[in-house]
From TrEMBL, chain A:
Chain segments carrying region Disordered: 1-25
Protein name, entry field: Cytochrome
An annotated Gene Ontology molecular function: monooxygenase activity
PANTHER family reported for this sequence: CYTOCHROME P450 YJIB-RELATED, P450, PUTATIVE (EUROFUNG)-RELATED
Family: Belongs to the cytochrome P450 family.
Coiled coil: none
Keywords: Heme, Iron, Metal-binding, Monooxygenase, Oxidoreductase
Biased composition annotated in UniProt, kind: Pro residues: 1-13
Domain of life (superkingdom): Bacteria
A Pfam family assignment: p450
InterPro entries in the record: Cyt_P450 (IPR001128), Cyt_P450_B (IPR002397), Cyt_P450_CS (IPR017972), Cyt_P450_sf (IPR036396)
From TrEMBL, chain B:
Cofactor or coenzyme needed: [3Fe-4S] cluster
Any coiled-coil regions, as ranges: none
Protein name according to UniProt: Ferredoxin
GO MF terms held by the record: 3 iron, 4 sulfur cluster binding; electron transfer activity; iron ion binding
Highest taxon listed in the record's lineage: Bacteria
Chain ranges of the 4Fe-4S ferredoxin-type domain: 1-29
Keyword annotations of the record: 3Fe-4S, Electron transport, Iron, Iron-sulfur, Metal-binding, Transport
Cited function: Ferredoxins are iron-sulfur proteins that transfer electrons in a wide variety of metabolic reactions.
Length: 420, 68
């Protein structure tokens, strides 16, 4: 408990009040100043008190907030909790009163069997083996962008020079989307996930992406090329509209996720010199560093589910129709699951983190993201042994109003002479 | 140790093939789990257990052998 400096110390032991614990809280969003990688401090306190508790939603709904690793994991794995948008109350103010149902192809807003139908069409395209086969291509694209950075010389913005284009080019190639349209897609995707734009603008941006993809789908039906959209156009029973929706969904998921991990992850490593040194000295740590960064940064920080029926969980009764907000970032910093959770530790075995979610909706593209991160981080660090921030850390603009956390810009520089 | 997998539950996330590649694989067509070795040797037990524990769809069942 924080005390006002002028408050005299209590002379009698105070009896801890039980009532406030059961009172609904609102979702904490303010990250601690000076700690760009830490979740809002209040989340830790809430998790310690009760890993599952009542939450007051901005629209007046009284639902739930889950913050403990175990309970968040249970909820995400439980098919009695729905992912359908139209059943959800939004945890943060500023959204529409009611969300419309997921548009065709938007798998993240659907339950079984509709979700299963889409997912099964795509699962075989994102296997560990298939994604590993892309390693050489990821290495090529990575090297090209590092070459350009090196030729340019520091300082450069790592977001636009490296973190965004590498995964964007990969997902465009994989899907068969012309990379010339990348900037347009990137801009629209940023709008879709930006909490400070209106819902109307978000929908307009989503529709714009979908329209471009729709045109592509028609072209690929007529003249298939060697890519995922063409495969789906040939093999599946998806309608043009569904296929455009699936394409837009995959493109959006591939554009705004790994990009933020690469930039924020680099920022985190540069801010933890001992961890960075450990990683530099032992390339065998790369794979677990990627998992640890996923845990530590939890860029997709919050999930939402709605109870389809009454569910007893953790000694509480969640009633049908109630919304549960799951805090991924709180779960991934749960000391019951990860000792000293607030430390970035590249020697930690972070497996079991919920950074890619959990349950039937767990990230479909996670094996692609892993390949990209496993290539990109070491390549960047090897190319620039003296890589450092070009501005004070407090001047790095943070994506505090986005569904996907990260940095807007990351100016970095290095010693040109010893650059290579 | 005996393993079984439920391909109906499987959501093709690939965590098992990533964690215990000697024991699990993914179908090249549909991405669903394939059990390479339902009775893996002892050296793969820890990885198989971990794969079962982190499977997002709870599609892997481990039956531990009785201690002798």
């Amino acid at each position: 408990m924080q005390q006002h400096p002028s408050t005299p110390p209590p002379t009698e032991p105070t009896i801890p009040a039980a009532a406030p614990l059961s009172e609904p809280v609102t979702l904490p969003t303010a990250r601690p100043t000076g700690c760009p990688f830490d979740p809002p401090a209040e989340l830790a306190q809430l998790r310690e008190e009760r890993p599952l508790r009542r939450m007051q939603y901005p629209d007046g709904h009284q639902g739930w907030l889950a913050t403990g690793h175990s309970v968040v994991r249970s909820i995400l794995a439980d098919s009695r909790f729905s992912s359908r948008y139209e059943l959800m109350h939004l945890p943060l103010p500023g959204g529409p009163a009611e969300l419309p149902p997921a548009p065709p192809g938007d798998m993240s807003g659907l339950d079984a069997p509709e979700h299963t139908r889409y997912r099964r069409l795509l699962m075989g395209k994102f296997t560990v083996r298939r994604m590993r086969e892309l390693t050489a291509r990821v290495e090529e694209i990575t090297a090209e962008h590092l070459d350009t950075m090196e030729r340019h010389g520091g300082p450069v913005d790592l977001v636009t020079a490296f973190a965004q284009p590498v995964p964007a080019l990969m997902i465009c190639e994989l899907l068969g989307v012309p990379s010339a349209d990348r900037d347009i897609f990137q801009r629209h995707t940023a709008t879709v996930t930006d909490q400070s734009t209106t819902f109307k603008d978000q929908m307009a941006a989503y529709t714009a992406i979908q329209e471009i993809i729709h045109g592509l789908v028609l072209a690929k039906r007529a003249r298939p090329t060697d890519d995922l959209l063409s495969d789906l156009a040939q093999d599946s029973e998806l309608t043009d509209e569904e296929l455009a929706g699936v394409g837009a969904f995959l493109l959006g998921a591939g554009l705004d996720t790994t990009a933020n991990m690469l930039a924020l992850g680099t920022f985190a490593l540069l801010s933890n010199p001992d961890q960075l040194a450990a990683l530099r000295s032992d390339s065998g740590l790369v794979d677990q560093t990627v998992e640890e960064l996923m845990r530590y940064l939890s860029i997709a920080d919050t999930g939402i589910r709605a109870a389809l029926e009454d569910v007893e969980l953790d000694g509480h009764l969640i009633k049908a129709g109630e919304t549960v907000t799951v805090s991924i970032q709180a779960a991934n910093r749960d000391p019951k699951r990860f000792p000293e959770p607030d430390a970035l530790d590249v020697h930690r075995k972070a497996t079991g983190h919920l950074g890619f979610g959990h349950g039937a909706h767990q990230c479909l593209g996670q094996q692609l993201a892993r390949v990209e991160m496993r290539v990109a981080f070491p390549a960047l660090l090897t190319r620039f042994p003296t890589l450092r921030l070009a501005v004070p850390p407090e001047d790095i603009p943070l994506r505090t109003r986005s569904n996907i956390y990260g940095v807007h810009r990351l100016p970095v520089t290095w010693d040109q002479e010893s650059g290579r | 140790m005996k393993l079984s997998v439920d391909r109906e539950r499987c959501c093709g996330a690939g965590m098992c093939a990533l964690t215990a590649p000697e024991v699990f694989d993914q179908d090249g067509e549909d991405g669903r789990v394939l059990l390479r070795d339902p009775q893996p040797p002892h050296r793969h037990h820890a990885a198989a257990r971990e794969a079962a524990a982190i499977c997002p769809a709870a599609a892997i069942t481990v039956i531990e052998a009785r201690q002798t």
